[in-house]
Every structure is written in C-alpha cells, then in structure tokens.
Specification:
Oligomer: single chain
Radius of gyration: 23 Å
Order of helices and strands: HEEEEHEEHH
Largest sheet: 4 strands, antiparallel
Strand order of the largest sheet: 3-4-6-5
Number of strands: 6
Length: about 190
C-alpha cells in the first residue's frame, strides 16, 4: 500500500511554488497591459510606456512629470523640468494613442476623446490579444513545470507524489486561465460600455 504524502518533498514543493510565482507574474503583466488600453475614462496609466530622451537617458514620462486627471475627460502633464515639455508633447503624439496634447507653456493638457464604436472594437481586440498571450504564458509555465516533474520522477521521487504535483500544476493552470477569462470579461464591459 502506498504511503499518502501529507507534505510534498522540497523539490516538488519548489517546482510548484516556482510555477505559481511565474503564473502570478504573468497575471500582473496582463493587468498592466490591460490598464494601458483605455476605456473612455481618463487615467494617468494611459501614458504608461511613453518615454523621452531625458539628457541622454530613455526615461518614462511619469519619472519626469506629474500626471493627473482633474476629470474623466482630461489628463494634465506637468513636467518638473519645463524644458522637456516639447519632448513629452512629441513623445505622446509619436506613441499613437489617439491624443493631441495642447501645450499651455507650463503644462500639457490632453483632452481624452470619447471612443467611437470602431475604436472600442479595436481596443477590445487588443485586450483579447493580451489575454491570449497570458494564456500562452500560463500554458508554457505548466509545460515547464510538468517537465521538471518528469525529471524529479527520474531522480527517484515517488510516483504518487509526482501525480499529486502534476494535479496541483493542472489546478493552478485552470485557476489562472479562469482568472484571465474573468479579467477579459471585465475589460470588455469596461471598453464596450459607452
């Protein structure tokens, strides 16, 4: 009769923890990417990823300016160093976010236009692509963890413990895929609600 394992050994536990941590990182990445996809309401995250050449160093604009949203329709960018206002203006336009910043000397004022139906569909397509990329990442992590499990089995870890590990890896995968679907549903509502 097989002994039931109350605890996994260190190697199998490490394998599972590593998979869990990698999957959580994939979720954080997905959330961050989806925040960049705007859904009508102005937010400082809309400018995330926009960078300028700040005295020879490629720098995210949020490290060179205060970015605020006084209301749901506008973003104010107030650089700490006024000399980079023009650079920030050009970088925002070059980022192709659909924004046309207005340079007011001290600040940039960005009017966030309401989304057209076509633009909403495009944004949702982008969100779906990000979600699919996250699913692929989760499945790759599962495959790598299962390969590690096979190696552990070869190295003499008991079969029932490997079975338990593989079950845990699959449950982790299913939970994260379900979470991705839920996040995408929420984002769809966010984008498609006028």
């Amino acid at each position: 009769m097989h002994k039931i394992f109350k605890h996994m050994n260190e190697e199998t536990e490490f394998c599972l923890e590593e998979a869990k941590e990698s999957m959580q990182n994939a979720m954080v990445h997905l959330e961050r990417e989806l925040q960049k996809i705007r859904a009508g309401k102005a937010s400082p995250q809309m400018l995330e990823g926009v960078k300028i050449d700040y005295y020879g160093v490629i720098t995210p604009i949020e490290q060179t300016a205060n970015i605020s949203t006084p209301d749901a329709r506008q973003i104010i960018v107030q650089p700490w160093d006024k000399s980079v206002l023009g650079l920030i203006d050009k970088a925002i336009q070059a980022a192709n976010l659909g924004f046309n910043p207005k340079n007011e000397g001290e600040i940039l004022r960005i009017q966030v236009p309401p989304l057209t139906e076509e633009r909403r569909r495009d944004l949702f397509k982008r969100a779906k692509t990000e979600a699919e990329n996250a699913r692929i990442t989760i499945r790759t992590i599962r495959r790598n963890a299962n390969e590690t499990a096979k190696k552990l089995k070869k190295d003499g870890v008991p079969e029932d413990e490997i079975d338990k590990l593989e079950e845990s890896i699959q449950k982790l995968t299913d939970d994260h895929i379900a979470l991705i679907d839920k996040i995408l549903d929420t984002k769809e509502k966010d984008i498609m609600t006028v």
